[in-house]
Amino acid sequence: MPVPYDDTGNGQFRPAHFHLLISAPGYQSLVTQLYFTGDPYLTTDVYAASSKAKQRVLTVKPTANNRKLVSFDVTMTENLLAEPAAIDRLAGTYLDEKDRNLKTEFFKRDGQLWRKSGRVVYGINYEYIGNNTFAQSGLPPGLIRTYLFEPQADGSVKVTSTNIDAKGNKVVTVSFKKP
């Protein structure tokens, strides 16, 4: 079993959890975290305490051969897909318009757009929601993270990132990928 850990170094512990990535061509990828009943940090963790996480808190059952068993059913849905050529054009490294040292890197996997993240080994999947906009799914209620891509006349691509936290604070940044 995984163990709880201090995520920020200030005593705010994350409950024990597994990160899970399930993907299949033609279906929305699922990136999620699975938690376990009885963990004392479930109620204080912003991700585990969300109403959507309740269905991902699993009961650990002992088996006859002295092992532990958990069960998590998954139903995959078909994608609202952006055109493959569009994903190819959006993939790449974007530099923040105010601080060129801040980079965001997008890549293509299974025909979908993903963003590299230093804390997540396999990246973060973004669902196409229409109008050149991609959204991160699976966030706790109130949290929103979207990217609006706008091809420019010079061949570059502008991306506007909008992040809204649980308190409603909104941060908007703009980055560009050069041709």
UniProtKB/TrEMBL annotation:
<feature type="domain" description="Intradiol ring-cleavage dioxygenases">
    <location>
        <begin position="8"/>
        <end position="64"/>
    </location>
</feature>
<dbReference type="Pfam" id="PF00775">
    <property type="entry name" value="Dioxygenase_C"/>
</dbReference>
<dbReference type="InterPro" id="IPR050770">
    <property type="entry name" value="Intradiol_RC_Dioxygenase"/>
</dbReference>
<protein>
    <recommendedName>
        <fullName>Intradiol ring-cleavage dioxygenases domain-containing protein</fullName>
    </recommendedName>
</protein>
<keyword id="KW-0223">Dioxygenase</keyword>
<dbReference type="InterPro" id="IPR015889">
    <property type="entry name" value="Intradiol_dOase_core"/>
</dbReference>
<keyword id="KW-0560">Oxidoreductase</keyword>
<dbReference type="InterPro" id="IPR000627">
    <property type="entry name" value="Intradiol_dOase_C"/>
</dbReference>
<comment type="similarity">
    <text>Belongs to the intradiol ring-cleavage dioxygenase family.</text>
</comment>
